[in-house]
Amino acid sequence: MLWEDRINNYAKETGFPKSLFIGPDGRVVGTWIMGNDYRVKSTYFGGYPAGYLRRVRALFPDKKRTLHLFSGKVDLSLFPGDTVDINPALRPTFVDDAQTLARVPLHKYDLVLADPPYSVEDAEHYQTTMVKRNVVMRALQQLSVGAHVVWLDQVLPMYRKDAFSIDAAIGMWITVFRRVETAKAKLPASSRQMTLPISGEIDAGLTA
Ligand SMILES: C[S@@+](CC[C@H](N)C(=O)[O-])C[C@H]1O[C@@H](n2cnc3c(N)ncnc32)[C@H](O)[C@@H]1O
To answer: Given this model, what pLDDT does residue 42 score?
Structure first.
């Protein structure tokens, strides 16, 4: 499936405005503004934010078998697939270390969603040691040619350029704000009182 078709399907299925674009080098770039809703339905620490799985699914309608790596309590009703986690209490399909994946028949999957702990502090929440991202990427070299890995993280994992190419880089989310003049009518009540300290003038000032 061409990336142009993936992007069109994303816009069609999610109803979000087009936010991904194909650059001159053929690589997809863009941003997903996840909004203010960071709630995680499962309440699992570090779980996918609301809407994330729906967005990824809309980009890959052609995929037949998905593997959720570092699966935690991923919502399989939103994105069906097999799961891998090091914690057996989470009852994943495969209890395995993402750095080896010795028990996982990787060649059977055409899509991997990976959501590792971002930091040592995060890893402590799961009572695991921090993963070596490059070692996980090395284990993923057992995937068949054409398989995609969607890796959610704060940094780019190191990877071998003769094993993977970057198809898309999606930012989530750096903001550059510019302060604009605030119309008086839009000031919140607290700042109205600060700027208009004489009570009799407040309403008059704001309704003018
Ligand atoms: C950020 S959470 C994933 C949350 C998941 N996306 C969700 O929506 O629930 C990271 C998960 O990685 C698992 N994990 C940590 N180290 C691991 C390792 N070496 N191999 C496999 N899983 C690991 C933790 O047990 C934890 O469930």
So the answer is: 79
Give 191 or 198, the one with higher predicted confidence: 191
Query: How confident is residue 70, by pLDDT bands cut at 50, 70 and 90?
Result: very high
- Lining residues, ligand 1, CB within 6 Å: 42, 44, 46-48, 70-74, 85-87, 97-99, 115, 117, 126, 128, 131
pTM: 0.85
Residue nearest atom 15 of ligand 1, based on CA coordinates: 128
Atom number in ligand 1 closest to CA 127: 25
Structural domain spans, the chain: 35-177
What are the residue ranges of helices labelled H in the chain?
A: 3-14, 52-59, 120-125, 133-139, 189-195, 199-207
The pair of structure tokens assigned to 159 is: 């990877």
What tokens appear for 62 in the block? 């052609």
Residue 49 vs residue 127, higher pLDDT: 127
pLDDT single digits (tens) 8-28:
999 999 999 889 999 999 999
DSSP lists the bridge partners of residue 168 as 28
In angstroms, the Cα distances linking 83 to 5, 32, 71, 142, 188 are: 27, 25, 6, 17, 47
> Per CATH, which fold does 35-177 belong to?
Rossmann fold (3.40.50)
